[in-house]
Structures are given as structure tokens and as C-alpha cells.
């Protein structure tokens, strides 16, 4: 049974400006594991896409819970990838749920959609 659904869209230039203004922005958004992957990316544009995608996925997840960022922290939500590169989300408080996530990028935007299914 679907417990929640959320979607988020973010402008890549907004993320770029946040990174330039605040040298710690990515550390506020990314978990330690995500930050390791972020640092491995050589291409500056691809780094912004990665960060924007994670930002959108975490916002979409928070919306799907009905809580939003504030009750949940960006650090509570970790975007992971499986062996095929497909994204997933890990959140300690939601281990008994199935969390489906899709992340996409265009030239100007990153978009993520999250569906939370209750496991019986």
C-alpha cells in the first residue's frame, strides 16, 4: 500500500550559486558516504547535477513522509545506488518500508520523485 508520494524540482544554477556562496553547502546536503562519491566526480557540471539530484530526492522523500525538511534532516536521508546504478533511499526510521526513487536531470533542472510503500 502506498504510504506517501513526493516530487521535487531544483534549478541547477541555484545549487551552483549555493555551492559558490557557502563552501560547506554540499556537506550540509550530503551524508559522509554521498560526499565520498561526490568528491570522486572530476567534471564540475556533473558534480552540480549529482548534488542537485540528491537535494531533490531528499526533498521529495521529506514531502512523501508529510513532514518536510525541518522535521527530517538532509543527513537523515541517504541516496544510494544499486549494482546497476539505480537510485534508492535509506532512512533509519523507514527500514520497514519500501522506498522507490527516480532522479533525472536536464540542462537546467534536477527532478526527483519518491514513493513510499508500507510493507505488511
TrEMBL record:
One of its GO terms (cellular component) is cytoplasm. Transmembrane segments: none annotated. Keywords: Cytoplasm, Fatty acid biosynthesis, Fatty acid metabolism, Lipid biosynthesis, Lipid metabolism, Magnesium, Metal-binding, Transferase. Its EC number is 2.7.8.7. Its cofactor is Mg(2+). One of its GO terms (molecular function) is holo-[acyl-carrier-protein] synthase activity. Residues 4-113 form the 4'-phosphopantetheinyl transferase domain. It catalyses: apo-[ACP] + CoA = holo-[ACP] + adenosine 3',5'-bisphosphate + H(+). It is found in: Cytoplasm. Mg(2+) binds at residues 8, 59. Pfam families: ACPS. GO terms for biological process: fatty acid biosynthetic process. It comes from the Bacteria. InterPro entries: 4-PPantetheinyl_Trfase_dom, 4-PPantetheinyl_Trfase_dom_sf, ACPS, Ppantetheine-prot_Trfase_dom. Its main location: cytoplasm. Belongs to the P-Pant transferase superfamily. AcpS family. Transfers the 4'-phosphopantetheine moiety from coenzyme A to a Ser of acyl-carrier-protein. NCBIfam families: acpS (TIGR00516), pantethn_trn (TIGR00556). This is Holo-[acyl-carrier-protein] synthase. It comes from Virgibacillus salinus. The lineage of its organism: Bacteria, Bacillati, Bacillota, Bacilli, Bacillales.
Amino acid at each position: 500500500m502506498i504510504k506517501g508520494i513526493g516530487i521535487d524540482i531544483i534549478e541547477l544554477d541555484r545549487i551552483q550559486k549555493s555551492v559558490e556562496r557557502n563552501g560547506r553547502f554540499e556537506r550540509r546536503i550530503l551524508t559522509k558516504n554521498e560526499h565520498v562519491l561526490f568528491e570522486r566526480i572530476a567534471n564540475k557540471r556533473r558534480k552540480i547535477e549529482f548534488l542537485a539530484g540528491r537535494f531533490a530526492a531528499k526533498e521529495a522523500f521529506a514531502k512523501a513522509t508529510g513532514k518536510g525538511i525541518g522535521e527530517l534532516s538532509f543527513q537523515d536521508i541517504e541516496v544510494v545506488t544499486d549494482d546497476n546504478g539505480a537510485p534508492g533511499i535509506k532512512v533509519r526510521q523507514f527500514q520497514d518500508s519500501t522506498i522507490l526513487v527516480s532522479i533525472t536531470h536536464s540542462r537546467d533542472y534536477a527532478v526527483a520523485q519518491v514513493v513510499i510503500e508500507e510493507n505488511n
